[in-house]
Design brief:
heterodimer; A: alpha/beta; 2 domains; 16 strands; 46% helix; globular; B: mainly alpha
Chain lengths: 473, 151
C-alpha cells in the first residue's frame, strides 16, 4: 500500500513537471547555467598583485645594495664600554673596582639587601629550587605565585592581580590583550619604551598627546568625538583607551590623574595606569598615585607595575577588577607563553610587601629625602633639574645643549666619571635612540633611596656641583 | 586540515570548511533536519520541503553571512573582527571548492523543493525569495549593500 502510494505520488510529480509554469523553468535553467559557471571558474584573490616583468625584476635585483650585517658603530658607543659592578648593587656599590655610594639603582626602599627578604628567598630556594621550568598553564603555578597575587590584590585594594615574570613584558602584554586593530589609544608622549612596544604590538591607532597636557588630550578626545558622531555605528565598536604612567621614568613628573578620570567619564575611554615608579613610593601607604591623589581604585581600569623597582624583586603585576584581569590569563602573551616567576623571587616580593605594610613610615622618609635633594640640586650652573620634588628618580639635563646629542652625552659622561672618581655612582638615562618615538634629551638620572643619609645626599650634591663646574665651564 | 590537529594557522575559521568530513557532516545535518520536518504529521511533503528550504537558508545566512569575527581570540590582533565567515574563508581567495559547494547546495535544495511542490505558485514565491536572499551574499566581493552589517 505504501509502495503504491509512493509510486502514485511520483507519477503525479513528473506530470506536474511537464505542466510547470514557464517562468519557473526559465529560472531553473538560469540556475543550472550558474552552477556550471561556478563549477568551472578558477580561484583568484580579490586584490591582484602587480606582476613585474622579468626585465623589471632584473633591474631591481641589480639596483639593490645589501646593507652590512653589522652596521658601523663608533668605538666610544656606551654599550661597548660599560661599567662592571662586582657584588650586589646595594647602597654601597663597587663599580669597576671602586667603592661608591649608589645613586643609580632603583632600590627606593632599600629592600635589595634586606636580611628578611634574603632569608625568605633562601628558604624558598631550599624548598622549590631555582626556576619553574614552565609557563603558568603547564605546571608552572606554585602556591607562592597565588599567594603573591592575593597579597598584591589585597595591598592595592583591587579584586584580583596577575603576575608576570618580566617587568618589561607586563605592560607590553597587557595593552595588546585589550586593545586590537581598529581601537584607539591616547598615550602620553613621554611614555616609556615598554608602553611603546605594547602599543606597537596592539596594532591600534595611536594618538600621542603632549606630556602631562590635559588640554591637548581633551582636544584629541573632542576630535575623536566629532569623528564618532559622523559614523556612530563604527564608534560603537571601537574601544578607546588612555595610557599614562603614574610617575614618568623619562621626566620624573606625576600624571594629573584627577583630571584624567574626569575626562575618562566624559569621553567614555578606559584608563590604563602604569605605576612602575610610583608603586611603593607615592601615597601614604605606598599604594601608588591613586592613593596619592585620593582617587578610588575602581575608577582606574587597569593598574600595571613592575616589581623591579621598589619591591626589589623581578617581574611585574597587573591589578584591577576581576573580569578585567582574568582576561589576561588567556590573552596576556607574556603570561601564557613565558615561564613563570621563580618562586624565590615571588617569596622575596611577599616579604618585601610584608615590610612595606609593617613600616609605612618609610614612604614619608623617602619623600622628605626626595624633597631635600630636589631643593639642593637647584642652582647648579650648567645643569637643570627635571622632575618633581616628590619623585625619587630625577633627571639632570644640560642647561644649554651643545647642539649635537653625541657631544651632550659625552659631556654628561665626563661629569659622571668625575663623580665616580669621588665615590658617587651615577648613570645616564639610556635609550634606544632610533626606536623611541619621542626621544628625551640626554640626562643624568639620580635615584634617591631611604638608605642614603643626609650627609651622603649633601656630599653627592656638592660632588655634582664641582664636576659640573669642572667639565662645563 | 583535520580537527584536533596541531596547526599554525592564524585563524582556524579559514580552513574549517575544508576539513575532512565537513561536507558530509553538513549534508547529513541537512538530511536530519529534513527527516525531522517530514516526521511532523500535519506537514505535507511540499510544506516540509519549503520549510526545509527556508530554515536551511536562514541558518546559512546567519552563520555564514551575519555573524562577524571569530568566537576565539586570534594572534593577529582581531584583523578579522569585521569580516563574516564567508569573507574569512580561505583568507579571501574566491571560488575555492568549499565556497562552490556551499553556493550550490541551496540551489540543489531549491530544485528539490520546487519539484516536490509541483511548481505551485505560492511555494515558488517563498522558495525563490529565500534562494535569492542566500545567493546575493555569496557574490565574490567584500561589499556590504546599503551598509548592512558593516561594523
Amino acid at each position: 500500500m505504501a509502495m503504491a502510494a509512493e509510486q502514485w505520488v511520483l507519477v503525479e510529480m513528473v506530470q506536474a513537471l511537464y505542466e510547470a509554469p514557464a517562468y519557473h523553468l526559465i529560472l531553473e535553467g538560469i540556475l543550472i547555467l550558474w552552477i556550471i559557471r561556478l563549477v568551472f571558474s578558477k580561484t583568484y584573490k580579490l586584490q591582484e598583485r602587480s606582476d613585474l616583468t622579468a626585465k623589471e625584476k632584473e633591474e631591481l635585483i641589480e639596483e639593490w645594495q645589501p646593507e652590512p650585517l653589522v652596521p658601523p658603530v663608533s668605538k666610544n658607543h656606551p654599550a661597548l664600554n660599560y661599567s662592571i659592578v662586582s657584588g650586589p648593587p646595594t647602597h654601597n656599590i663597587v663599580v669597576n673596582g671602586k667603592e661608591c655610594i649608589n645613586f643609580a639603582s632603583f632600590n627606593f626602599l632599600g629592600l635589595l639587601a634586606n636580611p628578611r627578604v634574603k632569608a625568605a628567598a633562601l628558604a624558598s630556594l631550599k624548598k622549590y629550587g631555582v626556576g619553574t621550568c614552565g609557563p603558568r598553564g603547564f605546571y608552572g603555578t606554585f602556591d607562592v605565585h597565588l599567594d603573591l597575587e592575593e597579597r598584591l590584590a589585597k595591598f592595592m585594594r583591587t579584586e584580583e592581580a596577575i603576575i608576570y615574570s618580566y617587568g618589561f613584558s607586563t605592560i607590553a602584554s597587557a595593552i595588546p590583550a585589550y586593545s586590537k586593530r581598529g581601537d584607539i589609544v591616547f598615550v602620553d608622549s613621554a611614555a616609556c619604551f615598554a608602553i611603546q612596544k605594547g602599543l606597537q604590538a596592539s596594532r591600534s591607532d595611536i594618538k600621542l598627546f603632549k606630556h602631562n597636557d590635559v588640554a591637548d588630550l581633551e582636544r584629541l578626545l573632542k576630535e575623536q568625538e566629532i569623528e564618532d558622531q559622523k559614523n556612530p555605528r563604527k564608534a560603537r565598536v571601537t574601544r578607546r583607551f588612555i595610557v599614562v604612567e603614574g610617575l614618568y621614568m623619562n621626566t620624573g613628573t606625576v600624571c594629573p590623574l584627577p583630571e584624567l578620570v574626569k575626562l575618562k567619564y566624559k569621553y567614555k575611554a578606559r584608563i590604563f595606569l602604569e605605576e612602575s615608579l610610583s608603586f611603593g613610593v607615592l601615597g601614604e601607604h605606598g599604594r601608588g598615585v591613586t592613593e596619592h591623589y585620593g582617587i578610588s581604585i575602581d575608577d582606574i581600569d587597569l593598574i600595571s607595575a613592575n616589581m623591579e623597582n621598589a619591591l626589589a624583586s623581578v617581574g611585574g603585576f597587573c591589578c584591577g577588577r576581576s573580569f578585567v584581569v582574568d582576561h589576561q590569563r588567556l590573552s596576556g602573551q607574556g603570561y601564557c607563553f613565558s615561564a613563570s616567576l621563580p618562586p624565590l623571587l615571588a617569596a622575596a616580593a611577599i616579604e618585601a610587601l610584608n615590610i612595606m605594610e609593617e613600616k609605612p613610615g618609610i614612604f614619608a622618609v623617602l619623600k622628605k629625602k626626595c624633597q631635600h635633594i630636589h631643593k639642593s640640586l637647584q642652582g647648579i650652573s650648567g645643569l637643570k633639574v627635571v622632575g618633581e620634588s616628590l619623585s625619587p628618580a630625577l633627571h639632570l639635563q644640560l642647561e644649554e645643549s651643545t647642539g649635537s646629542r653625541e657631544k651632550d652625552v659625552q659631556q654628561l659622561q665626563e661629569i659622571i666619571i668625575h663623580c665616580m672618581n669621588k665615590g658617587i655612582a651615577l648613570t645616564q638615562a639610556r635609550y634606544l635612540d632610533k626606536e623611541e618615538k619621542c626621544l628625551p634629551p640626554p640626562s643624568i638620572r639620580i635615584v634617591v633611596t631611604v638608605e642614603q643619609t643626609e650627609e651622603e645626599l649633601e656630599r653627592a650634591v656638592s660632588t655634582i656641583r664641582e664636576a659640573a663646574q669642572a667639565v662645563l665651564l | 586540515m583535520n580537527v584536533g590537529v596541531a596547526h599554525s594557522e592564524v585563524n582556524p575559521n579559514t580552513h574549517v570548511m575544508n576539513s575532512r568530513g565537513m561536507w558530509l557532516a553538513y549534508a547529513l545535518g541537512a538530511g536530519l533536519l529534513h527527516i525531522v520536518l517530514l516526521s511532523i504529521p500535519f506537514f505535507s511533503a511540499p510544506v516540509a520541503w519549503t520549510l526545509m528550504n527556508i530554515i536551511h537558508n536562514l541558518g546559512m545566512c546567519v552563520f555564514l553571512h551575519a555573524v562577524k569575527g571569530t568566537p576565539f581570540e586570534t594572534p593577529d590582533q582581531s584583523g578579522t573582527r569585521l569580516l563574516t565567515h564567508r569573507e574569512q574563508l580561505d583568507y579571501g581567495v574566491q571560488f575555492t571548492s568549499s565556497q562552490k559547494f556551499f553556493t550550490i547546495s541551496p540551489i540543489i535544495l531549491y530544485f528539490l523543493a520546487s519539484f516536490y511542490a509541483k511548481y505551485d505558485p505560492t511555494h515558488f514565491i517563498l522558495n525563490t525569495t529565500f534562494l535569492l536572499s542566500i545567493l546575493i551574499p555569496k557574490m565574490p566581493q567584500h561589499v556590504r549593500i546599503f551598509g548592512i552589517n558593516k561594523y
